[in-house]
Amino acid sequence: MPAFDFSQLEAWAAVGLAFLGTFIWRFLGVMLADQVQPDSMLMKWVNAVAYAMVAGVMMLVLVFPTGVLATTELSDRLIAFAVGVIVMFFTHQLWYALPASIITFAIVVGLF
Amino acid sequence: MAHSPDIGLSRGQVLRRGIGDAVNIPGFALGSTMMGFSVIAKEAGLNFWMVLATTASVWGLPGQVAFAGLYATGASLLLIFVAVALANMRMMLMVISGADILRLRDLNLPLWRRVLMMHFLAITSWTQISYMQERYSSDQLLTYYTGFSLTIFSFGMAGTTIGFFFDDLIPPEILRIVIFVTPIYILLLIINARQTVNRIALVIGASLCPLFYLWIGNWSVLVSGLVGGTLAILIYHRLSRDGI
Fold it and tell me: What distance in Å separates the CA atoms of residue B46 and residue B50, rounded to the nearest whole number?
């Protein structure tokens, strides 16, 4: 149990604010979606930024994980990721690359 | 992913494909990731309904993790709001991109329906429809998205519930491997991006974000995204102009 004493009401307010902090972006996205012309340079830029952000967020999970993933070594996570990328590069098959990466990870963290 | 491109499929068939593709690695990987979130949020002191409401209403893992982490430290409500908003800012661009992929503007749906549909758009389903967009017509893609995103959502809710009540039953040695699947799945899927410009963007974004994180924390996603996306557009046009 945590040492901090949020009241029930404050805890629900926190949940509500977490929702609001996400909702505003989705709502703005829906509002702006109609303004951006398809196939325009702006839409290409939006897409490219979205790809860069998603890649960035996922790399943060790999490099600075929280919770139980943080009990593994950075080098183990990066080796497993690199194996996946290499298999993907040569085969272009997700269903080879993903298992290769996960099995590598299981081996390097010592599951077997 | 051995599906052949097929424009002739019926609505029901496409819906079943969307559901079928979700009841697979994406669903189980995301369910496990939400299990991991649930364990963190429980340790932070949130009760079951609060944890479930967070998954259902936020539906974006980085923001959820930022929320649980800050809650555990007893951070102020304002800080919680700002941190979640920062961690999930990319939702706006994903929604603009997702609405374009699904051709939502051509459907004339009321605002609440568009907002509701985009509520279920998170990294996994956005990545999936980006990947599938050339396989289906825009009508089919919308049906596919409905089946896929709602199934993924159900897996997320189930994972949150299981994580909260059965956190002691899953050995951490197994859980940490299962949780590793989601980031790897997403990264490997986007590496396959068809447009070169998006591949350049994701390589720059993936390389810069962890470096920026050491320096500017949660702002790193926004900054590396903007830098990566903009540089990718510039590099790509330079290359095309030079005829490479």
Answer: 6
Domain ranges of chain B: 11-192, 195-244
What's the pLDDT at B2? 44
Cα R_g (chain A), whole angstroms: 20
Average pLDDT, chain A: 91
Phi-psi region of B116 (alpha: psi -120 to 50; beta: other; left: phi over 0): alpha
Collect contacts of B131-137 with beta carbons under 8 A, ≥24 apart. B131/B189, B131/B192, B133/B101, B134/B5, B134/B194, B135/B3, B135/B5, B135/B6, B136/B5, B136/B7, B136/B9, B136/B14, B137/B7
Report the first-to-last Cα separation within chain A, whole angstroms: 34
b vs e for B25-40, b when ≥16 Cβ sit within 10 Å of the residue's Cβ? bbbbbbbbbbbbbbbb
Residue B74 Rama label (left phi>0; alpha psi -120 to 50; beta): left
Q: What is the pLDDT of residue B241?
A: 80
Two tokens, residue B7: 């424009």
Strands (E), chain B: none
Per DSSP, A38 falls in state: T
Banded model confidence at residue A76, pLDDT cuts 50, 70, 90: very high
Domain residue extents for chain A: 8-36, 38-65, 72-112
Give the number of other CB atoms < 10 A from CB of residue B135.
Answer: 17
Q: Who wins on pLDDT, B150 or B180?
A: B150
Kindly report the number of other CB atoms within 10 A of residue A22's CB atom.
Answer: 27
Q: How far is A97 from chain B (nearest CA, A)?
A: 8
Of B77, B186, B225, the CB nearest to A49: B225
The pLDDT value recorded for residue B194 is: 81
DSSP H helical ranges for B73-137 = 77-87, 90-101, 111-119, 123-132
CB-based contact (8 Å) between B59 and chain A? yes
Identify which of B40, B50, B126 has the shortest CB distance to residue A67.
B40
CA B1 to each of CA A43, A92, B4, B20, B21: distance values in angstroms, whole numbers, following the listed order? 28, 11, 9, 11, 8
